[in-house]
């Protein structure tokens, strides 16, 4: 069950909805990223690689393959076998958001002050936004650095390599009625690499920024930018770069008063599996509850930090209040589950951005909590859906080239088609060169061994 660390106003056992009510339908929330419109120009849009390699030439589009999300009963029952995520490597972004193969970006959790104003410091916020398509470059660079440090044996086997965010979108699609996404995939050396459709996301973000404000909104309703800032401010209040037990209180307060910035980050790269499908996933991790264990097989005590609007007192909570929050828990759970993050700490805030309370959730307990509550999503269905989809994708992406992966709002169908040749910058030139050099080295060793057999040692 959940552990109450501060007053949050969340009833631990919310009432279940009556059968057949609308509240029992899949979640209806606005996604951050919208899928590209079904036009050839969108599907053939070149991503913007950082490298100077020439873009692959466009080819006539191939046939469209479809994977239906409904009916969900196909995915009910016990979940497919899951391999616990195990960290294989990591990297950091420094204060200038430059890649560094180290753990200097790691932070540790401290309890933030209740009553803090999350709006404070908004005017000095150092906000990093991706203006170029970063592809999978940092993730792949970390895999290269890992192999350079530990040798060829450090190379993890994988059917898929992607960011955690892509798998989160796939896992949560069955219970997000308005879910939509656009991705690109390419097959290289037996592995499928998946990334976000960055050009479509950039276009959509620009369109949203130009939308006029609604005619009416709550007096305390804040702008989209301000509400985004609240999450980063909460992290600044709850994370410090040193172990809390050995950090003087005045130093902790100094860290909590520092300028809010999202430039510096730490990313964990894990190996996991869904059924027979092996995955390498990379994603940002917020902080640690304790030092990393020396045993690489031991779980890492990461913690995920989230904010949510405070709920009414338990005696005044209505079903829709619980339903709204438990739908939000779907994404919280999926994000943490995929990287093996065991704890989620939610900061409950007022509409005006005042931190009212904290609540800690055990990631593995969330599906059961929701099942006993509003039953608005099912973790086993999410896992089984993702497993079946990955298997279908392996059967669909069987040759080199760039494939679009698109789910349109309310369509209930994921469409995949080959849109051009090459890799589209999904796999970096640095990674391609590294892999080719290793293959050439192995071939040279085999050739040398065949023409110059070793002389038996004298006895």
From TrEMBL:
**EC number(s) from the headed UniProt entry:** 3.6.1.-
Its job: Decapping enzyme for NAD-capped RNAs: specifically hydrolyzes the nicotinamide adenine dinucleotide (NAD) cap from a subset of RNAs by removing the entire NAD moiety from the 5'-end of an NAD-capped RNA. The NAD-cap is present at the 5'-end of some RNAs and snoRNAs. In contrast to the canonical 5'-end N7 methylguanosine (m7G) cap, the NAD cap promotes mRNA decay. Also acts as a non-canonical decapping enzyme that removes the entire cap structure of m7G capped or incompletely capped RNAs.
Query: Which residue spans adopt a coiled-coil conformation according to this UniProt entry?
Result: none
Q: Which family does it belong to?
A: Belongs to the DXO/Dom3Z family.
GO MF terms held by the record: metal ion binding; mRNA 5'-diphosphatase activity; nuclease activity; nucleotide binding; RNA binding
Chemical reaction(s) catalysed? a 5'-end triphospho-ribonucleoside in mRNA + H2O = a 5'-end phospho-ribonucleoside in mRNA + diphosphate + H(+); a 5'-end (N(7)-methyl 5'-triphosphoguanosine)-ribonucleoside-ribonucleotide in mRNA + H2O = a (N(7)-methyl 5'-triphosphoguanosine)-nucleoside + a 5'-end phospho-ribonucleoside in mRNA + H(+); a 5'-end NAD(+)-phospho-ribonucleoside in mRNA + H2O = a 5'-end phospho-ribonucleoside in mRNA + NAD(+) + H(+)
User: Which keywords belong to this entry?
Assistant: Hydrolase, Metal-binding, Nuclease, Nucleotide-binding, Nucleus, RNA-binding
Q: Where is the RAI1-like domain?
A: 83-431
Identify the domain of life.
Answer: Eukaryota
The broad enzyme category this protein falls into is hydrolase
Give the UniProt subcellular location, in the record's own words: Nucleus
InterPro entries, per this entry? RAI1 (IPR013961), RAI1-like_fam (IPR039039)
GO CC, sorted alphabetically, is: cytosol; nucleus
**Protein's GO biological process:** NAD-cap decapping; nuclear-transcribed mRNA catabolic process
Pfam families given for it? RAI1 (PF08652)
Q: Which organism is it from?
A: Setomelanomma holmii
Protein's UniProt keywords contain Nuclease: yes
Q: What cofactor is this protein dependent on?
A: a divalent metal cation
Region annotated Disordered sits at 1-64
For whether the record's keyword set contains Metal-binding, the answer is: yes
Give the protein name, as stated in the record: Decapping nuclease
């Amino acid at each position: 069950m959940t552990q109450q660390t501060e007053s949050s106003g969340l009833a631990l056992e919310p009432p279940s909805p009556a059968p057949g009510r609308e509240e029992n339908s899949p979640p209806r929330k606005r996604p951050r990223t919208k899928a590209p419109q079904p036009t050839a120009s969108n599907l053939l849009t070149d991503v913007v690689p950082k490298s100077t390699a020439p873009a692959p030439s466009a080819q006539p589009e191939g046939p469209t393959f479809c994977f239906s999300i409904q009916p969900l009963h196909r995915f009910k029952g016990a979940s497919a076998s899951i391999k616990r995520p195990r960290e294989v490597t990591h990297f950091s972004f420094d204060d200038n958001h430059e890649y560094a193969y180290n753990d200097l970006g790691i932070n540790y959790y401290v309890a933030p002050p209740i009553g803090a104003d999350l709006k404070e410091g908004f005017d000095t916020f150092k906000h990093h936004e991706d203006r170029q398509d970063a592809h999978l470059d940092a993730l792949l660079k970390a895999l290269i650095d890992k192999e350079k440090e530990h040798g060829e044996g450090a190379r993890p086997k994988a059917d898929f390599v992607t960011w955690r965010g892509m798998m989160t979108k796939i896992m949560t699609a069955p219970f997000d009625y308005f879910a939509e996404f656009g991705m690109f995939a390419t097959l290289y050396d037996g592995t499928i690499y998946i990334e976000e459709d960055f050009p479509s996301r950039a276009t959509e973000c620009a369109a949203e920024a130009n939308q006029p404000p609604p005619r009416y909104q709550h007096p305390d309703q804040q702008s989209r930018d301000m509400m985004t800032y609240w999450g980063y401010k909460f992290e600044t209040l709850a994370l410090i770069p040193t172990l809390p037990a050995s950090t003087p209180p005045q130093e902790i307060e100094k860290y909590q008063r520092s300028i809010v910035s999202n430039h510096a980050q730490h990313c964990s790269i894990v190996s996991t599996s869904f059924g027979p499908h092996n995955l390498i996933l990379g994603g940002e991790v917020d902080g640690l509850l304790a030092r990393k264990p020396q045993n690489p097989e031991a779980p890492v005590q990461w913690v995920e930090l989230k904010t949510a609007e405070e709920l009414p007192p338990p005696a005044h909570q209505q079903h829709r209040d619980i339903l709204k929050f438990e739908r939000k828990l779907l994404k919280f759970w999926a994000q943490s589950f995929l990287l093996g993050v065991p704890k989620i700490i939610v900061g409950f805030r007022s509409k005006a951005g005042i931190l009212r309370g904290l609540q800690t959730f055990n990631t593995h307990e969330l599906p059961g909590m929701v099942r006993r509550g509003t039953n608005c999503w099912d973790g086993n269905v999410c896992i089984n859906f993702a497993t079946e989809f990955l298997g279908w994708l392996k059967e669909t992406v069987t040759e080199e080239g760039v494939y679009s992966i698109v789910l349109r709002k309310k369509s209930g169908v994921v469409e995949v088609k080959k849109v051009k040749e090459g890799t589209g910058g999904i796999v970096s030139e640095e990674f391609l060169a590294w892999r080719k050099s290793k293959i050439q080295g192995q071939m040279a060793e085999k050739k040398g061994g065949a023409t110059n057999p070793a002389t038996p040692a004298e006895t």
